[in-house]
Amino acid sequence: MPPSTLPLSLSAVRSVGSIMPADMLLRIFDGRDVEGGRPADYGAIGTRSVEDEAERLWHELRGAWWVLRRTLPGREEHGQLPADPTRSALRGWVEPLFVALGFGRLAGLRISGIPADDDPGRVFPMTHRYQRLLITVAPWDTELDARGRDGSASPQSQMQECLNRTEAHLWGLVTNGRELRLLRDSTSLAGSAYLSVDLEEIFEGELVHEFIGLWRLFHASRFEVLDGEPPSTCLMERWRDEALRSGVQALDALRQNVEEALAILGTGFLRHPDNHHLRQPAKVGELHTALLRLVFRILFLAVVEERDLLHPPHTDPRTLGRYADYFSFARLRRVADRGGGGGHHRDLHTTLRIVLDALGLEDGRPELGLVGLGGLFTRTEEDRCLDGASLSNQALLRAVRRLSRVRDPGTRRWRPVSFRTLSSRELGAIYESLLEDLPEYRPADHSFHLVHRAGNARKMTGSYYTPSSLISRLLDTTLEPVLDEAVKRGANQAANYPELDEADTIAESLLSVTVCDPACGSGHFLVAAGQRIAKRVAAVREGTPEPGEEAYRRALHTVVARCLYGVDINPMALDVAKMSLWLEGMAPGRPLDLLAPHLKCGNALIGATPAQLRGGIPDAAFTPVEGDDRKAAAALGRANSLERAGQAALFDTEPDAVKVDNTTYAEGLHGLYAIEVGSLRDVREQEQVYRVWRRSADYRRAVHIADAWCATFLWEKVEGAPQPVTDETFRRLFDPEDAAETEATHTEIRRLRDRYRFFHWHLEFPDIFPVCDDLGGGSNGAPGWQGGFDCVLSNPPWDKLDFEDKKYFSVVQPSLAGIAGLARREAIAQWQRDFPEEAERYRSARRQVKSTLHFAGRSKGFPSCAKGLTVKGVNTLQVDHLFVELFTGLIKPEGRIGAIVPTSIATGAGAQELFATLTRDRSIASLYDFENLKQLFPGVHSSYRFSLLTLHGSQSPVPVADYAFFLHEPAHLDDGRRNFELTADEISLLSPNTGSLPLFGSRRDADLTLSVYRRFPVLWEEGRRDGNPWAVRFKNLFNMTDDSGLFRTRADLEGEGWQLRGNAFEREGSRMSPLYEAKMVHHFDHRWNGFTPAGAARQPERSEKADSEYAPLPRYWVPEDDGAREGLDTRLSGVGWDREWLYGWRDISRSNDERTAIPALLPRAAVGHTFPLMFVQRSPRLVAALCAVQSSLVFDFVARQKINGAHMSLMTWKQLPVPTPEQFEPHLDFLVPRVLELVYTTHDMAPLARDLGCTGPPFPWDEERRAELRAKLDAYCFHLYGLDRQDTEYVLETFQTAKGGLKNNEIARFGTYRTKELVMEAFDRAGIGPMRTQGVEHSRN
Asked: Where are the membrane-spanning stretches (predicted)?
């Protein structure tokens, strides 16, 4: 981060990096609205104010300063400072300064050094320590960031390294008497970060106000920590935390201001009388794009101007003055701050245009000291809309005011925006949040507005601003190991070739690292990665872990030009990414680097690979999608199939006729990289070379062939459409002399290319993905190319590949968005009839999404995700899942992947094949799951789960992966109790059918669950011939939506003469069965709930439960047998079930409910789909024992680790561990009688009782007795599952939440955790345990 002098005349203070936001420093210096700002907090005596106390000390120190300067005068010739052999500066100046700041005498704070935590032999030469604050006092003639005469690291570097490597210290002060610097532990940062105060300027310039601010900021009380408290509790750290929290709010406020500035500028241009050409509704999109680019430029200018990066070094002061007085953004800001309308003149806009245009010219404006920058200042077709347009001073100044200040939500005061400290990531976040806004022109008053899409709250609240703490953690696990390997390679190379300089060789190895973000947005990850690489390069070159600022800046400039790659589908987002990188790597007087070869616009998910091109056009390309003519699509598919079989080929099309070699294209880029850049003219030469490269006939033909392959999947297969490319004509496209297709076909290919933004990785980055036809099968992996990126980092879109009518119509026709369900579909149909042109755009938008899904599912580019579409209930794909599968093909075999994605990638049904593949391949290095409770992403619901996922390439498999779940903030990863390791075999043991991941809250949860799975197999392991030992079948009997036409209410039936008998209706020998819903049953209780005649849920009274004839009433009834296929009898006979009772479980459940796994036995009746049924082809006694185990607390504990969301899905239920029937046999005599007593409490359960060998009356309903029986079953199952007493107590304690849970609910009801007491008493009873289950351990082999 470049240095920044704070605004408001604090000329002696510089803030570098993100150590403390500028607005917080201003508040501290001002002494307002900050904690700890009272006189007593500074130890001021009596009634003196802070200002009075500081001013008193100012006078004392000023005298000491001038005494010192008589002893040590200013710099000698050649800028050398006089030596201080007698250390008069320390005794006569530094010590009094620290006494005045409240630290006391330095002699009492002296130390001999601080050892590193990770290497006690490494001792940092700190000279003093005040509680947890480290202090280094350097000699007077030593520069704080300069190496020592003996080659040792600079005082600042040593302090920074010490803070980074000692946990007990967060803050440090470094001074030489002339300058005072404040540093903080920066392990999560890349570049330098410190606050510097020029003491020389303050005391020689008589800057009293700045000294008062210095005293407020650096007083000892700001660093004091109570005994036993961590260093993070000091006031300085609390100030910083508050500033960071308010910074997110300030960022949202600035985003809002930028949006308002866009609207003001748009309206200003539209209303100016000279701009008739803009006042056309059709032009609003062009105007919006031009306005965004204009504001990009204004903000970029403001930032580089305040950072002193705009003018070359040694620019003539008179030239600088001319620019500052008449042309600078700072002047515009001053004029705007003074208020006033500005009038209808346009001179201010004209002046601004002179500057912006000059920065895009090769020669710049020498009379203003401006050199050509190029980059975003280069005029493009998108800017043409505003060429020659006029803007009044009034509109421009209003917009500048919006851009230059924000309202602090905490203090409710306006504060100036510090463009110097506004990071490129913050600017990127602001603009990325605006890219989804839609422009609107209102002709009535010629006004311009931005309209928010419905459901776009994420973008409106700054949630695109990925927190630095998350990015830092991900870089630690992905990029840092890659950089470590680069250092090793460089060191080995230098060792093998003694003539090479080791530092240069290692630096060059680091600069050869390539990092890509395939969904880069505004470049957050690329900026962070560039900073990490640059720090490593600078550290190697300087020989210190904490390099100086200048070395870091030089390295960063090189890294931006060489190491970073990005792709995004939105061209404006890509412009923002370039702006972010330009700001990071900019050097005074140098042009903006050409980034087009590395940052490209396109749809990263839709492209052709060499392997796909070699394979020709697959038949699946012609599968019809929404809007296609099925007959036409089928005919094309048949024709293509014949061509592929060779039956209709007219020409020889051997496989080697398909040439996809790209080596010549890679060679063509070498000339581009060989141009040495010193001026914008050199950049223009690079641009010309790049244009020629992209426009070469061979390259354009290669791209067009790949476009044709993609277009086939997206082709509209209807009558009248151009003839699509089939396999034969596709292969003929490789022959430049063969006119294989009509011009209409080629035109359609280009249209689809532009609409879908095809992106072919091996053609866009041929130097990264080399393809050589001569190597044949020498590629690495399915894509068919070699090489790849060293590291892929991304936070891809968290969206479904699905078209949502509500979002679409929220902008196009908001009245339709507000309608729901069938009514909306009917209204949309009518709207299409009324507005045929708009309807065509609607159908086109729907088709684009459906076709993209078709491509993803059928192109074989995403085989694992495509297989997810075959899972029952999965009808779409997650975009983030597709990106992760894409990433695996983009890295080198030894590369790394880091992604922030929803946790559903490890737990969801649609991702099960993808995650299983990653697990089998040993690709997963770590997965850290977060709940968004701390609003790390402000626009996302607090319950949403996302993960930091780290993957390895194929040549570096990970034997054991690291996991953590239920994290709320990155710091939780430092708690070792949350992390646990799992091997691929263990995941396969836990989820043999799907490979999905359980959600363990702690290492102990993982260990206990694994011990259970090692003991017993899952209910049904689908991949094994003997994997269904229970011979179980599953069925949803009645769907509550699809079968609702069969449902009858009580009023319906009674009106038709039916008579209620129990809870069934009868009439003339026919019977209407009650429809049980999941909410009506619970453990060992099919009478848990009923319904009133009005349809409200009703829990039976205890007296009703005691009545063995009582049966709760449902909401609906269905025919037992209607003589057709719809009745209950028919449906049960269809699964071969002839018993008079049923067994199933509740589908709706959550891991934080009082209970999660809730099976139940119930009478033969109709059952809704939220209570899936199990038809077990084993003896009733075994079914009863199975019910006992699946109702137990230990089984529930395991189920809680596996459930994600609000459903106990069939996928999950099958993969929960239960003994086999054979393993159950020794335990039936204990389990079955107790289950019978719990279940057989009504006459309608008599059939089950008879099947269990009981012919007596129902057992009485006795709450106390039932609690004891259930406790005995639970205790027995704890023993059965192999848990000891300590583990059993632990499991019982997990059944609680902050808002309730079993434990807290029972304490509220009974005054004690009754279940635990009863279970532990039964567990300890000699008659129960320990059980002999040594032979239960199972093997999956």
From this structure: none
Which tens digit of pLDDT belongs to each residue from 466-518? 788 899 999 999 999 999 999 999 999 999 999 999 999 999 999 999 999 99
Q: Counting runs of H as helices and runs of E as strands, what totals does the chain give?
A: 53, 33
Do 284 and 383 fall into the same domain? yes
Tokens of 418: 């510090």
DSSP 180: E
Q: Sort residue 1097 into left (φ over 0), alpha (ψ -120 to 50) or beta.
A: beta
Q: Is residue 316 part of a domain?
A: yes
Q: Tokens 């799992």 belong to which residue?
A: 982
Q: Are residues 1172 and 1066 in the same domain?
A: yes
Q: Which of 419, 442, 460 is the last residue of a domain?
A: 460
Higher pLDDT, 1021 or 35: 1021
Distance separating alpha carbons of residues 340 and 346, to the nearest angstrom: 15
Instruction: Let me know if residue 215 belongs to a domain.
Output: yes
* 1015 domain residue, yes or no: no
Evaluate if residue 549 carries a pLDDT over 70. Answer: yes
Q: Is the pLDDT of residue 453 over 70?
A: no
For the cut 80, the answer to whether the pLDDT of residue 290 exceeds it is yes
Same domain, 772 and 698: yes
In three-state secondary structure terms, 405 is strand
The sign of the CA dihedral 162, 467, 193, 515 is positive
The Cα 715–Cα 741 span in angstroms is 15
510 in a structural domain: no
Which amino acid is it at 1086?
H
Q: Which of 460, 486, 519 is the last residue of a domain?
A: 460
Is the domain of 175 the same as that of 311?
no
Q: What is the DSSP string of 80-134?
A: PPPP-TT-HHIIIIIHHHHHHTT---GGGGB-S-EEETTEEEEEE---EEETTEE
User: What's the farthest any 2 CA atoms get from each other in the chain?
Assistant: 119
Q: Record the pTM.
A: 0.86
What is the count of structural domains for the chain?
Answer: 5
Please indicate whether residue 415 or residue 927 has the higher confidence score (pLDDT).
927
Mark whether 774 and 826 lie in a shared domain: no
Query: How many angstroms separate the CA atoms of 1214 and 264, rounded?
Result: 60
824 and 770 both lie in a single domain: no
3-state secondary structure of 930: strand
Distance CA 972, CA 792 (A): 25
What does the pLDDT look like over 1199-1241, one tens digit per residue? 999 987 788 999 999 999 999 999 999 999 999 999 999 999 9
Q: What residues make up the domain containing 627?
A: 602-780
Distances from the Cα of 1245 to the Cαs of 13, 364, 1217, 1250, 1257, in angstroms?
Answer: 83, 92, 27, 9, 10
User: What would the DSSP string read from start to end of 576-602?
Assistant: HHHHHHHHHH--TT-PPP--TTTEEES
Which pLDDT tens digit goes with each residue over 951-961? Answer: 999 999 999 99
Q: Are 1157 and 1195 in contact (CB under 8 A)?
A: yes
Report whether pLDDT(899) > 50: yes
Residues 629 and 758 in one domain: yes
1314-1324 and 1301-1310 helices, crossing angle to 10°: 100
Strands (E), 518-631: 564-568, 599-601
SS3 1027: coil
Q: How far is CA 123 from CA 75, 945, 1107, 1170, in A?
A: 33, 43, 81, 65
State mean pLDDT over 664-670.
Answer: 90
For residue 900, give the nearest of 953, 972, 950, 975 by alpha carbon: 950
Find out whether the peptide bond into 1330 is cis, omega within 30 degrees of 0: yes
Separation between Cα atoms, residue 1171 and residue 1158, nearest integer Å: 10
Say if residue 218 is in the same domain as residue 351: no
Residue 701: predicted pLDDT: 94
Tell me how crowded residue 720 is: count the other CB atoms within 10 A of its CB. Answer: 6
Paired tokens of 400 = 């500048």
* Banded model confidence at residue 1023, pLDDT cuts 50, 70, 90: confident
